[in-house]
Amino acid sequence: MAAISTCGVNFRAGGKSQRPPPSSPPPYASLCPPSSVSAKTPKLFFSSKLSVASSNSCISLRSNQTLFTPRLGKSHGTALVVASAKPEPLKIMISGAPASGKGTQCELITKKYGLVHVAAGDLLRAEIASGSENGKRAKEYMEKGQLVPNEIVATIVKERLLKPDAQENGWLLDGYPRSMSQATALMEFDFQPDVFILLEVPEGLLVERVVGRRLDPVTGRIYHLKYSPPENEEIAARLTQRFDDTEEKVKLRLRTHHQNVEAVLSLYKDVTLKVDGSVSKEEVFSQIDLALTKLFEDRKATSGTLAA
């Protein structure tokens, strides 16, 4: 019966469990010397799953989360491994000024790439509602009209990013970090993005987008008097404007945003993708999609470098 041995991996061949010697190379580095299987050199590929059978035996190997599938030929016992590597999931941060279209792009990105959408504000509100220790501490600061300390928010974000779905599928961190201290806290937790997307929109257009926004208190839908007007007069009559959606207040918010984002960019300058956010949402997403597709394809190619 043919046998294949690897380092530090239990495998089954013909129903018997064996433990290879510790001096063997790692399973993804090589198979056994040709003499143990065949004089013909086998091909080795990365694989996310392994399950192979020949006419005489079934062999399965697992190393970490990579599974290999050797197959023994009928006449020569040649080992052939067929595999498809699963690339490392994407880790993305996205930033943009108020009314830059960040929310829309987050929806489009997560829909296509299957990433876990993580918004710090939503996490904070959920934490408070849950009554957790961090939630209670955050609520105390908010009730006093104070900002929630960075270490509390960073801890909440860290715990979310460490959940299995985010680790397996990748994540899209929305609007966070917003300051150097927040970015530093994430770096201390060893969270680094593959891409930091920055939506750039001229200030005049941002002001126009914000000042023209209106809220329907009945449905919760957001309209815009110019770009997305209400369907009828009945809806138009009940629309309201947020208290901070005035030109004076939005300009103040924009100044704060620009100051903070410049500090954050200094940490992520090597992975920053600046996107023109003044065009249509489809055109904005096309710019983002082009960059992410290239990154994803490069990662797939890298993960298969051991393929022969």
Automatic annotation (TrEMBL):
It comes from the Eukaryota. Belongs to the adenylate kinase family. It comes from Hevea brasiliensis. Its EC number is 2.7.4.3. HAMAP family: Adenylate_kinase_Adk. NCBIfam families: adk. It catalyses: AMP + ATP = 2 ADP. Residues 1-29 are annotated as: Disordered. InterPro entries: Adenyl_kin_sub, Adenylat/UMP-CMP_kin, Adenylat_kinase_CS, P-loop_NTPase. The keyword Transferase applies. Pfam families: ADK. Signal peptide: none annotated. This is adenylate kinase. Keywords: Kinase, Nucleotide-binding, Transferase. Monomer. Residues 19-28 have a biased composition (Pro residues).
